[in-house]
């Protein structure tokens, strides 16, 4: 996968955007060439704290803490002037402004004309996050401007509608499924083992490679996190990125 630009977009906060951005950055590094990473969240700069990923945080707010859409130009200039893969982590506080900017500027078409493959990643969460994240997913699919990868995050609970339907059987998913580039499932696992391991990893802001070389993680913790890496990376590898 060369010259791909990955936008992680979802209106709801705390749903796993930074975690997914970190997973994508590590997946894209498998060939030895790390992507250029940007964090444009103006409140929770989680992605920027992964030191190994060398994430650049872009400040988009003025002295009155209001987002200035023109500052998104800086990001576009950086994307268009580079040659590497890129990952952009957004925040709930930048979602609406950034989405409007991308559409108004025909940014996806501009990137494609410059030889890049823009890809949007969005997340649907389970339990009481499902409704809000499903609405965000619907908004993203309504753009129709770039391939979309849907991440189904089971860590908040089962992805089941209020009518008891699995999300994959809802009218919303059925309508948009043919247009999706791919689906990645962050599987629900035992909270007291896998769940705690993921929490320890994300709190530490460490990559999988750092964890495998760290004395702060036990053999079994490393083994479980390797299982997660294999599962997610296998799903990402199965996506037809150039479709």
Summarize the structure.
Helix content is 40%, strand content 15%. It is α/β, with parallel strands linked by helices and 243 residues long.
- Going by CATH, the architecture would be 3-Layer(aba) Sandwich
The CATH superfamily label reads P-loop containing nucleotide triphosphate hydrolases
Total individual domains: 1
What helical percentage do the residues reach? 25-40%
Structural account:
With 243 residues, the chain is an alpha/beta fold. The protein has helices spanning 17-28, 72-81, 95-104, 107-113, 130-143, 171-176, 191-204, 208-212, 219-237, and strands at 4-8, 36-39, 56-57, 86-89, 117-125, 148-153, 180-186. The chain has a 7-stranded parallel sheet with strand order 3-2-4-1-5-6-7, sandwiched between helices. It has one domain (4-191): Rossmann fold, CATH 3.40.50.300. Helix 7 (191-204) packs across helix 9 (219-237). Strand 6, helix 6 (171-176) and strand 7 (180-186) form a beta-alpha-beta unit. The model has no long low-confidence stretch (mean pLDDT 93).
Salient structural properties:
243 residues, Rossmann fold, globular, single chain, seven-stranded parallel beta sheet, alpha/beta
SSE topology:
Elements: E1 4-8, H1 17-28, E2 36-39, E3 56-57, H2 72-81, E4 86-89, H3 95-104, H4 107-113, E5 117-125, H5 130-143, E6 148-153, H6 171-176, E7 180-186, H7 191-204, H8 208-212, H9 219-237
Parallel strand pairs: 1-4, 1-5, 2-3, 2-4, 5-6, 6-7
